[in-house]
Structures are given as structure tokens and as C-alpha cells.
Amino acid sequence: MAALLPRLPKRIRLTPSSPTHWICRTCQQRRAFTPSSTSPQTQQQPPRPNQDEARTTHFGYETISETLKASRVGAVFSSVASNYDTMNDLMSLGIHRIWKDNFVRGLNPGIQGERKEGQRILDIAGGTGDIAQRMLDHATLVNDDKRTHVTISDINPEMLAEGRKRFGNSPYKLAKRVDFLEANAEDLSAIESASIDLYTVAFGIRNFTHKDIALREAFRVLKPGGVFACLEFTPQLSNPVLNGIYKRWSFGAIPLIGQVVAGDRDSYQYLVESIERFPSQGEFRDMIREAGFLIPGRNGIDEEGGRMGMGKGWEDLSLGIAAIHKGVKPV
Fold first, then answer.
1. Which neighbouring-strand residues pair with 180?
2. CA angle, residues 198, 156, 207, in degrees to nearest 5
3. Which domains does the chain have, with CATH numbers?
4. 311, 324 contact by CB (below 8 A)
5. What pTM was estimated for this model as a whole?
6. What is the pLDDT tens value at each position of the chain, 331 positions in all?
7. Beta partners for 326?
8. Distance from C-alpha of 133 to C-alpha of 238, rounded to nearest angstrom
9. Helix, strand, coil % (nearest 5) of the chain?
């Protein structure tokens, strides 16, 4: 009877220690088959990407990792430091000096009358010290204030070196009315909270990786009633015809001037592209407000009741090539 029954095939046993192999017809590679009973802890997991490396930002028109931007920007300003003021003259035909004079005059640094202490001013991305020089001159010569002090802060040591050359053995340095701080505007831990009367940044904030963080740091270090003031290029002129002419000049002439005068076309190409990537006047005004500041001039009237050309919350210069933004820390 048993002989009449069909013979059963022998069972094939698969064990985890002896995986079978098969050939992938698509990629023609030998692969191993592992039974599902293998513990998941023994399976190799793909590496997780570093979050800092995964975050990207812009460097001109180029998209790069956030961790690289500070060093890339630093390399640009290290390259242009010794020619920075000369290049600004050539790029703007000297108009940047008028803008800076207007910027400082509108802030009216210094305190009139008898006071034991003057203002404490923090000039961020102060580099060559030209804004600080104007601040101290105005405080001293216009307001007869010989106590106001300016701290020039910059992330780039080569730019700070140019500022130290500018002041040399000037009366301001001898009187200890100016000092220098190498620091990142996004981390001003060396500056006490609520210790600054006036925070200024001229043609520097567009290079910051996290502008919102820098604005919050500005808010932190300012005293209640203190003023944030920014002078910066704008990405677009309101007149489309003039905007086209301006863009042709910016992208055609400025990198060429950088190549001829400084032997560095790439750095000045970045400077032009960085302007294009900066927020519009309205967008940047809103960023200042979101950091906690009050925006003066929203109705075209400043806090003293006079016209100040800031009806939209900023003041355009030279048909909108540059603009002045201000914010006041609430009391």
C-alpha cells in the first residue's frame, strides 16, 4: 500500500546564516535574499543627512549649503578689503558718499547739552570705518558731543584692519571713542542686552545668511527707544526703463571694473548678484517689523511731526537704487 503512494519531494530548508543568491536581470548584479525572520536591528540603515548641510541659501545666484555661506562671503570681502572704498567710488560714481552723508545726517548722532554720557553706537559690518567716521564727526562738530562712542563690528578681520588704518592715531582713537569687534551679526553675545542707543548697518545686511536672526539680535542689544538704521541697495527701481539701464550698468560695468582695478571679477559679480537677491523695500520693512520694531514714518510723518520721505516705511535714494530703513524698539 505504501508503495502505491507518490513519493513526496524533499523539503528545502532556508536558514538566515545561508542566504540564497539570485541574479537581477535589470542590473545584472548578484544580490542576496535574506528571509524575513532576520532581526530588523541587523539590517543596515541608510545614513541620515546632516541637517545643517541639508539647509541651503543663496550666494549671489548660486545655491549653496548654509554652512558655506559665511566663509564664501568672507573670502569675497577679504579679497576686496584694500580696494573697497575706491571700488565704491567707481561703481557708484561717488554717489555712495552722498547716500552715507544723508544716512548719518538723518540719524543726527550725538546728544546736545550737558550729559555725563554720550550715545553708544554699534556699527555692524562697519568694515573700513567710513560710517563710524561720519557718526563721530557729526556728534562732535554738529552736536558738540565729545562723549559719544562707536563700536565698529565686522565678521571679516581684513575689513576691520582697514578700519583700524583709517583711525590710526586719530583723536577719536586717542580719546577711546572708537573700538573694534570681530563678530558675526547673527551672534552678538559680546554685546550686553539693552546697552546700545543706535544700531547701524550700511551695505552689509544683504550678505548675512539669516537676516531675521540678525534683526532679532539688533532688537536685543538696543535699549528701549533705541533705533535700528539700515542703508542698503534695492533689487528693483520703480521705473522699468531706468531699471533696465541700471541693470545693464550693474551687470556689465561693475564686474569689469572689478577685474581691471582690483583684478577680481568674481567678487564684484557676487556683489551685484547679492543685490538682486535682497528683499524688496516692502518685504524688508515687514522683516524689521516682525523682529519687534516699530516702523517710523508709515504715514509720512516722523515722531517729531516733520516730513521725512518715509511714507511707506522707508526712504528711497537716487530713484530707488538704495533705501534707508529704520525701526524703533518700543519703550
1. 152
2. 70
3. 93-237+279-328 (3.40.50.150)
4. no
5. 0.76
6. 444 444 444 444 444 444 444 444 444 444 444 444 444 444 444 455 455 445 655 444 455 455 655 566 566 666 667 777 777 787 787 899 999 999 999 999 999 877 668 999 999 999 889 999 999 999 999 999 999 999 999 998 988 999 999 999 899 999 999 999 999 999 999 999 999 999 999 999 998 989 999 999 999 999 999 999 999 999 999 899 999 999 998 899 888 988 887 787 887 888 888 899 899 999 999 999 999 999 997 544 444 433 445 568 999 999 999 999 999 999 9
7. 229
8. 32
9. 40, 20, 40
Q: Within 13 Å and on the Cβ side, how many CA atoms surround 276?
A: 18
- Tell me the CA distances in angstroms from 267 to 3, 160, 235, 263, 294, one per residue in order: 92, 18, 18, 10, 35
Q: Which helix (H) or strand (E) holds 230?
A: strand 222-233
Q: What are the grid coordinates assigned to 20, written together? A: 540564497
If phi > 0 it is left, if psi is from -120 to 50 it is alpha, else beta; for residue 173 that is: alpha
For residue 301, give Cα distances in angstroms to 75, 109, 297, 309, 315. 42, 20, 5, 8, 12
Dist. CA 275–CA 252, nearest whole Å: 14
